[in-house]
Each structure stands twice: as C-alpha cells, then as structure tokens.
Amino acid sequence: MKRILTFLMSCILSSYALAFDSVERIAIVCAFQPEIPELKAALKNPKIETVGRTQFITGQIGNKNVVLFLSGMSMVNAAMTTQLALDHFNIKNIVFSGIAGGVNPQLNIGDVSVPEQWGQYLESIMARQSNGKFVPPTFLSTPYPNFGMMFPQNVQIANGSQAPEQKFWFHVDPNLMAQAKQLLANTKLDRCTSTQHCLSHTPKVVLGGNGVSGQSFMDNAELRQYVHQTFNANVVDMESAAVGHVAYTNQVPFIVFRSLSDLAGGGAGENEEGTFFELAAKNSSKLVIQYVSALK
Fold first, then answer.
1. What are phi and psi of 48, to 5 degrees?
2. The pLDDT of residue 11
3. Which secondary structure element, helix H or strand E, spans residue 167, and what is its range?
4. Could you tell me which of 37, 19, 17 has the C-alpha nearest to residue 288?
5. What is the DSSP letter of 173?
C-alpha cells in the first residue's frame, strides 16, 4: 500500500511539474471579452493552454514572452484567475488592460488612467441606523468617512501565525510605473468608435493617482463624488485591486491600464459604456501593446 501511495503521489507531482510553464512571461490580464481582441491580434505564435475553465494564450508581443487571459468580471474572478496564472506560469510582471468608470471630474471618456495604487472601497461595514444616524459596531474600526450606512474598511491579509495585516492601498511596482511615464507620455489615443461615434475631445494618458475597485458596477453620481473625495480616486472598476492584492501576497510586480468607457453615473444621461466600451478597450490595448513591446 505504501508503495502504491508513493507511486500515485509521484505521478501527481510529475503531472503538476509538466503542467508548469517555466518560460519567464509577462501576464496580460483582461476582465471583459471586448477588452481582449486587440491584444490577441498583436500576439505572435499564439498557443492556447486551458487550466480548469480558464483559457491562457501564450506567445510574444514584440520580443517579450507573454501569457494573455480573461479573468472574468468582478473581484473573485480576478483574484482566482490571477492566482491560477501564477501557479501555472513563470510570471515576472502582471499588466492589466481594460475599461473603467471615471470618478475624477477632470478626466473624460477615452482617457487612459494608470494609477499608482489601488484600494478595495467596498470592503465595508453596513451599519445599522439608530436615532437617525448610521452607527457601526464599537468593536470595529472606521478609518474612512461613511457613505450612508457604508463604512469602508481596510482589507485583512493573512500573516501566518501573526495578526492579519491591515491594508487599503496596493501599490503598483515603481519600476513599471517609471517606465510607463517614460514610454507613454506622448502617446496619441483614438477618439472615434468604429461606428463613428466621436468624442469632442482628444483622449489623454494620465499617469499616477489612485484607483478603486469593488464588486458592484457604479452608476451613481453621489457615490462617484464620495469615492473621488474620500479616496482621491481617478477611476473605479471591478477587478484591479483584487489583482493588486494577489500580486502583493505573491510578491509579483503589477501595473494597471484603465481607459474610461463611462463616467460612473456622472454623465447627464444614460451610462455611456454601451457607446464607448469598444473605443476605451482599444485605447487601453494600444497602450499596453506599446508598453509591453518597449518594456525593459
């Protein structure tokens, strides 16, 4: 019996070893299907590898070995698939490309934001109401101003046998950011969709600042204003801070490119994503292709 168990364990470990891709790669992650076509088209020598239900495409952009994949939308999907990639590929850097909602009134649809840090703004207490006020439990901390019943919290990160680490901001890699500032400052972005819906302004690249992520699609002017004022955020999405969380715990450098498809409820009429997601995705992909190709 012992020999049989030893043999089976050996087979399992051998299979895992064969499944691991030892080629050093840059992981390029998208969440939403329309975000990936431009990146797929730029990929040389593509090869599809499927792990579980996730399709990974290896190949090259420029002379860089990459693995491109869709995480799926929202925080759990982003964290799960990013960890899956780290477990099966030799990932040197993580680069996220996608669309987002703009919460900084100084930014416009089509602009690409490359924040220096990301926070999980919906990690929160939903407080009870007492005598006309929202009151959180006394045993929980409230490090940030509330939005109605919602009191944002820091994320707890397991730390072995020690007390969990309390953390809100996940910083992108300073070297990756420095190279972005050097390589992308003068990039020209598109302002018209394929159906000729054109912006009245020329989109720009905004390097630095903050981004926030949460499980909910934001389309609310008051919440948008609160998030900008409380966290000094430029953009909001549903994945990037989760990817940052996984990158941090695995000590892998990451950076995120997010192009504004809408104003997260700040526009005068219907949410703009339905009109401009294609343009926003194209602008983000264009920058990522340029960036990865030139990355040192």
1. -90, 130
2. 46
3. strand 162-167
4. 37
5. P
